[in-house]
TrEMBL record, chain A:
Belongs to the RNase PH family. One of its GO terms (cellular component) is ribosome. GO terms for molecular function: RNA binding. PANTHER family: EXOSOME COMPLEX COMPONENT, EXOSOME COMPLEX COMPONENT MTR3. InterPro entries: ExoRNase_PH_dom1, ExoRNase_PH_dom2_sf, PNPase/RNase_PH_dom_sf, Ribosomal_Su5_D2-typ_SF, RNase_PH. This is Ribosomal protein S5 domain 2-type protein.
Automatic annotation (TrEMBL), chain B:
The keyword Translocase does not apply. Gene3D superfamilies: 2.40.50.100, Nucleic acid-binding proteins (2.40.50.140). This is S1 motif domain-containing protein. Keywords: Cytoplasm, Exosome. GO terms for cellular component: cytoplasm; nuclear exosome (RNase complex); nucleolus. Residues 67-146 form the S1 motif domain.
């Protein structure tokens, strides 16, 4: 008996595993998902700018049931002292306490801080920060309803990019984002919360359509490298579809401004 | 001149046909838009390429740059500098104030070593100044060392709007007392 060390029990018994929950198939016989989408279909998107009047730019996005608001303030002086010849992009990503299935805390937890960093990494390559020395651009995202976390993150990136353009901040290109859930060797585009419960992995791509450059890839879980590269291609295709929605929303806000000006004149 | 609405990242033309103006940038020989707005082509004089610009509807909140003229309010005076809240850059107001400071050597062009900040600015004065450098972490460096820069509006101790009588003095119309400021030349 070794008295110098802390010994474990001499006899140990393996724990009893509970029954593994039965997985419901995500696709039915006709290849359709619960909400009648095919495996490649994205949910319909509603995107509008100018919701938050006090901010320099803002956007509201709805993707299926996911709803998020983004407000952009800037360029303004950096709160923290520190000289930098390029501007800085700050992001605060917050789930509202009622937005997820399980109630979230008021304080930003580590998951939200991680997502804030993801947003900065996805958007920073597209913003011309070299034109804004000593200034900061602050992005605030508030998620009102979360139906699938990686697709919610993608929606937040789309909203943030639209809000930045609405604020008049110079950008190289808009940033679109699309996500996919990987489950049983299938690539399910734009997964909902129910589909994410059964995932083995997921992928989210942020992409600049006009310059054809990927700005950020977020992958989690277990997956095959071949499936990942296929999923990346599919997400880039999805991103190109979203681009037209973003451009329409921005051009619509432009024509609304013009109409207001004409009404004021006459 | 046709004007079409464009979004950031939209291709506008080839770099060999146009010069990149405001709101556009060039990459790999192609001009792209960098803001949401109306695209317009200004034809230059012969021999030069026409300039492609994108005129944006919503003005971006102004950022002070070296050489820009700013209007601001004096927040605090210290022995060797005055702290200014920059409120307007050129003609564009700032959504949120930037912070600038005027050091003693930048108050005026003559007798720089004999400057007393308390006789040049007081808290509450509105000044017009020029940005001379990006400054340090906390504030931009401003200068009022030209005739057209300095205090443009000040209130006397009695509460009335003062009238500048020389580049160094302002007079209160109510009490006729003279207070010292570095005044800007009225237009």
């Amino acid at each position: 008996m070794d008295r110098r060390r802390v010994n474990g029990p001499e006899q140990s018994i393996a724990p009893i595993l509970k029954n593994v929950p039965v997985r419901t198939p995500l696709l039915d016989k006709g290849g359709k998902r619960v909400d009648q989408r095919t495996i490649d279909d994205l949910r319909p998107i509603f995107l509008k700018t100018g919701l938050v009047t006090q901010a320099n730019g803002s956007a509201y996005i709805e993707v299926g049931n996911t709803k998020a608001v983004c407000a952009v303030y800037g360029p303004r002086q950096m709160k923290r002292a520190g000289f930098s010849s390029n501007g800085t992009l700050n992001c605060e990503f917050k789930f509202s306490t009622f937005s997820c299935t399980k109630r979230r805390t008021h304080m930003r937890d580590s998951e939200e801080k991680g997502y804030s960093q993801v947003l900065v990494e996805a958007l920073a390559p597209a913003v011309r920060l070299e034109l804004l020395p000593k200034s900061a651009v602050d992005i605030y995202i508030n998620v009102l309803e979360n139906d699938g976390t990686s697709s919610c993150l993608a929606a937040a990136i789309v909203a943030a990019s639209t809000a930045l353009a609405d604020a008049g901040i110079e950008m190289l290109d808009q940033v679109t984002a699309c996500s996919a859930v990987l489950s049983e060797k299938q690539i399910i585009m734009d997964g909902t919360e129910a589909e994410e419960q059964q995932k083995e992995g997921d992928v989210m791509i942020s992409y600049m359509p006009s310059l054809n450059e990927v700005t950020h890839i977020l992958q989690s879980g277990i997956s095959d490298p071949a499936i990942i590269s296929q999923a990346v291609e599919k997400c880039i295709d999805g991103c190109s579809k979203i681009y037209s929605v973003m451009s329409t929303a921005l051009l619509q806000s432009l024509s609304n401004n013009n109409n207001d000006v004409d009404e004021n004149k006459s | 001149m046709e004007t079409t609405a464009v979004t950031p990242g939209q291709r506008l033309g080839y770099a060999e046909d146009y010069t990149a103006g405001d709101g556009t940038y060039e990459r790999d020989g192609i001009l792209y838009a960098s803001v949401v707005g109306l695209r317009s082509v200004d034809s230059n004089m012969d021999g030069e390429l026409p300039t492609m610009t994108v005129v944006r509807e919503k003005e971006q909140s102004a950022v002070p740059e070296v050489g820009s003229v700013i209007t601001g309010k004096v927040i605090r005076v210290a022995p060797h500098s005055a702290l200014i809240a920059i409120m307007v850059v050129g003609d564009t107001p700032c959504r949120e104030d930037f912070s600038g400071s005027i050091r003693t050597q930048d108050v005026r062009a003559v007798e720089k070593d004999k400057v007393k900040i308390i006789n040049s600015f007081r808290p509450g004065d509105i000044v017009r100044a020029e940005v001379i450098s990006l400054g340090d972490a906390r504030s931009y460096y401003l200068s009022t060392a030209k005739n057209e820069f300095g205090v443009i509006f000040a209130t006397s101790v009695a509460g009335a709007t003062m009238i500048p009588i020389s580049w160094q003095e302002m007079q209160c119309p109510k009490t006729k007392t003279i207070e010292y400021r570095k005044c800007a030349k009225p237009f």
